[in-house]
């Protein structure tokens, strides 16, 4: 995995030294709100039934995002292969970094790399329908709404009744901005 650079971010393949920063993200109830209802994930905890990524620093396909200027931790991004032709985009940023355009900046870099270097044909991303901020990021980076899925959860979190939205982009249609 290459190091990717944007105007304000450096995305490097994650390392075990990033573990504490990753875990700190999972301690913030607002960061976890649309993943597990805002329950902080304990340092030693790992939920084997979780359907979301909780990196610890040794996962493939996960990049640690840091400010290029000072190396400060911003969050992480991933482009997780579903198969040879498609991958799923994911990201999680520190709350202090929200609203600055960094999610769009980092996600755009991964999409560009995914289409131009990894040669994926399709990139998807998902979130809860009520997660309007994440949906705006997906739309801003050129993904389009593909479907909304409604599932029955044993222990649903607030907003689950509105479903999970899937966004996607195809290399053949990608605008490459």
Q: Which architecture name of the domain at 4-123 does CATH use?
A: 3-Layer(aba) Sandwich
> Portion of residues in helices?
10-25%
Any idea what the CATH superfamily of the domain at 4-123 is called?
Gcn5-related N-acetyltransferase (GNAT)
Major β-sheet annotation? 8 strands, mixed
Text of the CATH class of the domain at 4-123: Alpha Beta
Q: Report the portion of residues in β strands.
A: 25-35%
* Low-pLDDT ranges: none
What is the SS-derived class?
alpha+beta
Return Rg in Å: 16 Å
Taking strands numbered 1, 2, ... along the chain, how are they ordered across the largest sheet? Answer: 1-2-3-4-5-6-8-7
Determine the number of helices (DSSP H or I, runs of at least 4 residues).
4
Order of helices and strands: EEHHEEEHEHEE
Question: Residue-averaged pLDDT, rounded?
Answer: 86
Principal-axis shape: globular
CATH fold topology of the domain at 4-123: Aminopeptidase
């Amino acid at each position: 995995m290459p190091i990717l650079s944007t105007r304000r971010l450096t995305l490097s393949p994650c390392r075990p030294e990033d573990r504490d920063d990753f875990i700190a993200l999972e301690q913030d109830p607002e960061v976890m709100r649309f993943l597990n209802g805002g329950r902080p994930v304990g340092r030693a905890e790992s939920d084997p039934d979780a359907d979301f990524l909780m990196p610890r620093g040794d996962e493939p396909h996960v990049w640690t995002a840091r400010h290029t200027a000072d190396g400060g931790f911003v969050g992480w991004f991933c482009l997780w292969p579903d198969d040879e032709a498609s991958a799923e985009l994911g990201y999680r940023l520190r709350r202090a970094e929200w609203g600055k355009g960094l999610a769009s900046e980092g996600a755009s870099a991964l999409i560009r790399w995914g289409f131009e270097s990894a040669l994926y044909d399709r990139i998807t991303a998902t979130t809860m329908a009520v997660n309007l901020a994440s949906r705006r990021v997906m739309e801003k980076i050129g993904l389009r709404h593909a479907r909304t899925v409604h599932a029955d959860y044993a222990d649903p979190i607030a907003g689950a009744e509105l479903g999970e939205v899937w966004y996607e982009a195809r290399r053949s249609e990608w605008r490459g901005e």
